[in-house]
Write a structure and sequence with these properties.
Chain lengths: ~210, ~60
Amino acid sequence: MSQQAESHESKRMLSTGIRVGTQVKTKFMKRFITETTPEGLYKLDLDVTLRRISIAARFISRAGPERTLVCSGRENANTPVEKFCELVGAVPKLQRFMPGTLTNPSLGYYTEPGLVVVTDPQVDSQAVTEATNAGIPVVGVANTDNITSRVDLVIPANNRGRRALATVYWLLAREILLERGDIKEREGMPYEIDDFETKMTEESPE
Amino acid sequence: MSSSAISLPVCSCCRRPVMPNDKCVKFHCPSCGEDLVWRCQSCREAARGYECGSCGFAGP
């Protein structure tokens, strides 16, 4: 990619709030934080985020997307995870993670994935615990306030915002498709970031 | 009677042998996929860093 196109993409990523963290900083996420805003919000390093996304894409491609379980207990991540799984062929696990999914073979919903991806290590702690017990590597999207114990590859990014989550999964899907050779260049993505975003539906007053 | 020695895998973070009953994990380096990374239970719990011997990638 040319330098101009790269800077244009960086600007586009910045507008999605992918690097905006919280007012809390943990020792685990200290090395990914670059600056603090006057409001006290910690900001993540965008270059590291993009580099980690491409590394995670390689990791998922090598493990096999069909053997990858993508978990999310967050409502904002439902559409991004569904779209991501539809594009790359991974297995989505939304809402509640049923105990025993990775550890109890007598259950009907038992699966044996090769890799587990979690949207928030705290929200999806059950998935992280079971992956640890089963000896499965864990890739986690972590914000500035996350504890990354038992996570084997951290993607430092905002995991609260709707648009930020859509961007993370869109980038991850694009890198995997590039890695597999399904798309030839970065501009050839079949979906836009907007398509990955969870839409808020307002209830009509009766 | 001959005795045979068992060679245990070594944790990539703390360089200690990984015990068979340990809740450890092994995976190929996420970046290059060449080196096999072992992480023992305590290193995973403490989020201790590991480094790939061939490409120099530092995780987690």
